[in-house]
């Protein structure tokens, strides 16, 4: 595995996006290397979404240094930040925050139309390919409000990967899904990782979750949020070997 | 702790209001400058996405308002000529009918009335739309896609409203002038069509055209900036929408009147 650091947080305080004085997680030290798949567990309102948004550069850190692709966010120009964002795909939780006035196909086409100067035929072909891949072709002309949240989340995924991405940030993508849908997501993510690898790249995935059950097969690294603290737990083996009650709780091996 | 005397509380309330007003003014100015910067630097960027949004705003705030503007302009022409003809006839000064039209409709009432119509039609709906977008997290979604929300959401509205107010004012003036003559003709005012238009032509200066274009564009920009600012400044809750849109309308009207007052000084030199 390559050890290129894609995102690095040093002594970062994670703050609430609408109330910057409210610190949710203190002093986060976190290095994310290319090709890793992180599963970050946390209770509701523990600051998972804010952590992910900060790692993506969408939320400003309360304090500390956030580096993306080797450069501090605070020193980066607006053009550099836009270039980084194009390399990151973000899927928000609870329906993915789609643009409600655009159809499913238009939502998926938006980043392509905005960033890539491609002719209409190529654009249609690319959107069609993305909708086919996410099994959304029948809903191409529907408004997002007509879709269930689980399908909206898929549209958000198609939109996030429309422009080729190096890092995929997923905010609780398996939350509230049945086993079949969860398996669909995990299989797709696995396939995307393999494709990127075959092209000589490495897809990095950061996903938040309520427990680690779904992610044991795919995630390479685990972390939890507990009492305003971010703790990395290591890989699968360390996780399974842990006897710590909090960690066992996130493994949710028994109901 | 002693009670604050009534006059003290009054002073405190006035002070708070002034501070709040200055804060809003400061934030509005910052928002306007950012929007201006984005418009100048990114007008042609991603035009396949952004330019259709500008056309959509022109259609919504301009084209769809045309029948209403036509109706009001016809009524305005009739009212002004109706009132002034009676007055001017009494002192035998009917030849000033055209001058009155220029002074009242072209310079003052036309632009302001159009701005208020556009504000009523597009201003409040912009606050609601953008407030809802912000509350639903669509603004963050745009940022996550590397799309500048000011470029995608605000710039089309600013350009669209500026063009709409300008074009609608032009139509309003033309229709009001036409309907004014029609009324004068019906009332048997002894003024011929060439004489009427020649009066209007004599009363108009080239500066009138430049100031009209500038004033109406500024009205449109002000309405768009104030309403977009109130929609996007913070995530709005449903119960806050009516208060915020009312505030945006009041601030827009006050702003337009202030711009008008500045132009009044300009007209003194025309």
Q: Please, what is the average pLDDT of chain B?
A: 88
Overall pLDDT metric of chain A = 90
Helical segment count of chain A: 8
Query: Unreliable runs of chain A, pLDDT <50, ≥5 residues?
Result: none
CATH topology of the domain at 5-96 and 166-251 in chain A: Rossmann fold
From the helix content, strand content and strand pairing of chain B, which structural class follows? mainly alpha
Most extensive interface, chain pair and sizes? A-B, 25 and 19 residues
Largest sheet: number of strands, sense, barrel closure of chain A: 6 strands, mixed
What is the alpha-carbon Rg of chain A in Å? Answer: 18 Å
Strand % of chain A is: 15-25%
Sheet of most strands of chain B: none
Strand count of chain B: 0
CATH class of the domain at 5-96 and 166-251 in chain A: Alpha Beta
**Helical stretch count of chain B?**
9
How many β-strand stretches of chain A? 10
Helical content of chain A (DSSP H or I, runs of 4+): 25-40%
The CATH homologous superfamily name of the domain at 5-96 and 166-251 in chain A equals P-loop containing nucleotide triphosphate hydrolases
Topology of chain B as a string of helices (H) and strands (E): HHHHHHHHH
